[in-house]
Amino acid sequence: MAPFEVRPALARRLRKLREEQWPDVGITQAQLAHALGGAKPLSISLISAWENTEKPVIPPVKRLNAYATLFATRRSVAGGVVRILPQEELMDDEQLRRKELLEELLLLREDHAGGSQRGTVDTWRFPDDEHVTIVCARLPEQLRKNLTYADPESADYVSLYTYADPDALIELYGHIRSVNPQNQVRFLTTEELTADDYTTHLVLLGGVDWNTVTRDLFGRVDFPVQQVGRNDDAEHGGFRVEQDGEVRLFGPQLDAQGRLLEDVAHFCRRLSPFNRLRTVTVCNGMYGRGTLGAVRALTDVRFRDRNQAYLQERFGGEESFSIISRVPVVSGRSLTPDWTLPGNRLHEWPEKATVGRS
């Protein structure tokens, strides 16, 4: 059987929204077709096809955005007229409801389209038209002063040479752009951020030693993982957690000559303390190869599906979660961590997560 014949959950949900969200209103398919189409009403047969559990048709993402906006507020049916309010007119609670509903519909759409259950969801996919800002540390001045390409006065100046973690940045920026074609995605150093940038979806690369926004975030929020800088309590630093009633420090492994054998990576996501309708994601390591490992866990084509599936099963409906993992370093190169292997996972939070969404 074709995939759409065995995955009718999205069709059922769309019909249920129309018929049961406000049962006293009784929204018809014709009214919904007019509301979703705006100046060019959709056909009633198309709405029917989206709701048909026998042979459902997959709605475009932009139509699911419209569904989420419409059913986020009862004001959409005020006065007996079904219409979609401009998104900027939604109140905070309505914006939150819209976000939750859109996430649900997109998850159902992924499964509907024939993906491998939850493994097809992409943590790096954001709702359309919501800006994303990747924040990097600026390479410290003492490391830039002898680099001709990092000198703005040089004819050979290249701004990317002033960024810390450029390999992680290039890997992540390309992936986020590819899965969010409708979004503005930018990357900036901490010194280039404006007040408005803080209220977008933030993705922070690098740790507390150089990235001041990462440092500020962990100083503002109550989080069970704290990063110990390389010049603080431990020679090479690490991530401090309380586990089984004991305080533990997960740090990198170096040989006697100071060569990095294994870094430690921290991947975490939470609601933003600067805008509760946006998120903050941190990809962090004690060294650059740990940061790259945190990024590649969900971008490397060989590992991202299985790691994404693990996140969905383990953390499903959690708004805030984190995972600390090993990042082996071989011949100076970091290897992508496989989160499905228990030995690679050093710490996970919450300890008891909810069951993944269906």
Notable traits:
358 residues; alpha+beta; nine-stranded mixed sheet; 10 helices; elongated; disordered C terminus
Q: Total number of helical segments?
A: 10
The gross shape turns out to be: elongated
Kindly give the count of domains. 2
Mean pLDDT: 87
**How much is the radius of gyration in Å?**
23 Å
Which percent range fits the helix content? 25-40%
Largest sheet: 9 strands, mixed
Strand content: 15-25%
The end-to-end span amounts to: 21 Å
**Secondary structure tally: strands:** 12
Structural class: alpha+beta
The arrangement of helices and strands along the chain is HHHHHEHHEEHEEEEEEHHEEE
How is the topology of this model organized?
Elements: H1 9-20, H2 29-37, H3 44-51, H4 61-70, H5 92-112, E1 132-136, H6 141-144, H7 166-179, E2 185-189, E3 201-205, H8 212-220, E4 226-228, E5 238-243, E6 246-250, E7 253-254, E8 260-271, E9 279-285, H9 288-296, H10 304-315, E10 321-330, E11 333-334, E12 345-349
Parallel strand pairs: 1-2, 1-3, 3-9
Antiparallel strand pairs: 4-5, 5-6, 7-8, 8-9, 8-10, 10-11, 10-12
Helix pairs in contact: 2-3, 4-5, 7-9
Domain HTH cro/C1-type: 13-78
GO molecular function, one term: DNA binding
InterPro entries: Cro/C1-type_HTH (IPR001387), Lambda_DNA-bd_dom_sf (IPR010982)
Describe this structure as you would to a colleague.
The chain has 358 residues and is α+β, with helices and mostly antiparallel strands. The chain folds into two domains: 3-115, no CATH class; 132-349, no CATH class. The chain is 30% helix and 19% strand. It has ten helices and twelve strands. Strands 1, 2, 3, 7, 8, 9, 10, 11 and 12 form a nine-stranded mixed beta sheet that branches. Strands 4-5-6 form a three-stranded antiparallel beta sheet, with no helix packed on it. A hairpin with a 2-residue loop joins strand 5 and strand 6. Helix 2 (29-37) crosses helix 3 and helix 7 packs parallel to helix 9 (288-296).
